[in-house]
Amino acid sequence: MQPDAVLPHPIGMRRTTLILAVTLICACGAANSANGQPAPATASPVAFTCTASGAASPLWPAAASATAPAIASAAADGDTLKLTFASGTPQFEVVPVGSAHFIVDPSGRPVDLAGASGVKIVLRGFRGDVSNYTGPARLTSSGPILLEAAPIGDFEGVVGFGAGVSRPSCANVTASSSTLSFHFIASGS
């Protein structure tokens, strides 16, 4: 052995071997063995949960002084009921009920909606001396859960909507600046 020769350091070789092994394993794991292409990312479905209630938005108090109806529009599409307001969003409550049979407040008149079950939506913080919703009396939907919705009350600052659903359900509620979207989901009860 020549005195000038430099031998590789055993720890440096182990580290290099380990790095090469990890790189090789990572490169092999990134490809689909059938066609050599990267495996496609799969989106996991979003699990909706029931929303029982929600507070009014900061812009909502301005609705109490409005002269136009506070509910600008209502639309049903698929399993979603979308309520759009003139300004902000009101306090709300979602109550699953056993049937699609509702009573209009304050008249006591019965309203039967399509469906085997129902969900009552209660909105609070409206003016009590005006009609707060002047849209369609019935909103039909293509479901499969939400079948029909209708206003079921506008009395003393409380507005109600009934939803006829195909099976026991609740709603997942999302709020934007002036919209509440009620996405109906099976509740398992």
Architecture overview:
By secondary structure, the chain is mainly β. Helix content is 11%, strand content 38%. It has one helix at residues 10-29, and strands at 53-54, 71-77, 80-85, 91-97, 101-103, 110-112, 117-124, 139-140, 146-155, 158-165, 169-175, 179-186. The strands form three sheets. The protein has a six-stranded antiparallel sheet with strand order 1-4-7-10-9-8, with no helix packed on it. A four-stranded antiparallel sheet has the order 2-3-12-11, with no helix packed on it. Strands 5-6 form a two-stranded antiparallel ribbon. A hairpin with a 2-residue loop joins strand 2 and strand 3 (80-85). The protein is globular and about 40 Å long.
